[in-house]
# Entry
Amino acid sequence: MQNYVLPVVLLIASNLFMTVAWYWHLKFKHLPIATVVMVSWGIALIEYTLAVPANRIGYGVYTAHQLKTLQEVITLTVFVGFSAFYLGQGPTWNTLIGFSLIALGAYFVFRG
# Structure
């Protein structure tokens, strides 16, 4: 059971860090781009230390396609929360419909 759950937990944590790495600076337009890049690289390093083990542990329990699909669905879910709470941009109906279609695609990846 741990091999099914641990990769998902690690992917959620890694996506939290990667979303922050990619989007935290949008509220700090005054910072030089070189500073933003360096800080983001530091944050992304944490993301990699979580994502790589998640995939190593999960491979064999999940297929490579399933792992990638999990990562994409988790990324979208984390992003919606981050965007709403940090950037103050909640999802629109079109966003929710689009993400739901992606989730439907994920269903088919795991079905087969």
Summary: The mean pLDDT is 94. The CA atoms of residues 26 and 107 lie 33 Å apart.
